[in-house]
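Problem 3 from the worked examples.
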Amino acid sequence: MTKNAVTLHDVAKMYRRGVRDVVAVECVSLAIPRGQFVALMGPSGSGKSTLLNMIAGLDSPSSGEIHVDGVALSVLGDDGLTDLRRTKIGVIFQLFNLLPSITVAENVALPLRAAGVVTGVRARVTQALAMVGLGERMDHFPEELSGGEMQRTAIARALVIEPTIILADEPTGSLDSETGRDVLATLRRCVEERGVTILLVTHDETAAGWADRIIRMRDGRCESGTLIPRAAVV
């Protein structure tokens, strides 16, 4: 089994805009070990979200190779990439993307239903919600939750598939500082208690301080990563 959850080798992404090519990501090589919490930082337009989308298989690189859990994304077709997201990759966005007409538990169960899982669904949903401290809220509807609770529901939805990696794109961007801290503490527990690998895209230095390593992007390139002593988080 590979020791890295994610490996990128000379990954680049170019877009055609009018008569010219725009480079969004340029020659990025990166390894994220299993069980590491990595924060990806950089100004708007630096390529952070583009890189995240390529790792999720939602976008394809113009060149280079991406491996997730030892699997080369380039050899997977659309069905293979969809299956990878259903079984290996949990995704958390800034907007919670919860369906308002169904309960918290039913929202969390959606990835299992999409993957065709029919047995043990309730137990896995209960476990995921307990992990994020929402065991008592599973039969509530999204409109009955606070912003922090909705984001923790989104984390539980990502966790329920028992992923190798969670990709989180500005998950605290729409939350106040105290609520954001609760969400980041939940992500930290996912790493420490479940060994999940997390790649967090953020503009917030405080949020990045919860990570094991910060990688900064500028003009489509990754700068050297910085390891963070765990005592730095207060």
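Problem 4, a separate protein:
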Amino acid sequence: MARSKSKHQSTRGSLIELVTIVAVALGLALGIQAFLVKPFRIPSESMVPTLEVGQRVLVDRVSFRFSDPDRGDIVVFKPPLGSESNQCGAQHSSDSACPRSTPERSDTNFIKRVVGTPGDRLKVIDGAVYINGKRQKEEFARLDSECEICNLPKEITIPQDQYFMMGDNRGESADSREWGPVPKKWIIGKAFMTYWPPRRIGIL
């Protein structure tokens, strides 16, 4: 009888241990997602050909707490309120990009590439970005010379602590050209790896 009771207690102890391990593992996974790495699904064609619709990436939520985004980084961020209707936060001429966003942020998540950093003088010609008068090397971009916001030859200056975002698919992207630069505090993190579909697994 004592052996049976001991065996029962041992089984029960193993079960409790297993449940505890699973709970801890789940808690760690949720914690990692909340504070370190977050998965993100590509919702539109704005980043084609770099990222396809439905492709999934991992986003580093930590690095930008200790460093600033660089030109060329692909980032997930909260766009300004009104971005869904391409609302700019300032009056500007039709031959320049939006120089300032609305003061409040949206609750949605966007993914774009950083093309301009604080203090940069920026213009767009034939879909290509010019920074301080110099055309940027953008092998990743699908340029377009005819879209409505692909020719903005009048320079704007990007405000301090803000970043100018554009999609790689220049003719099919609603971005900072229409709704302005994004404050650093609205940037969630840097996309560093694609993990789905399997044929597109790799480092960004």
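Solution to problem 4. The chain has two helices and twelve strands. The radius of gyration is 23 Å.
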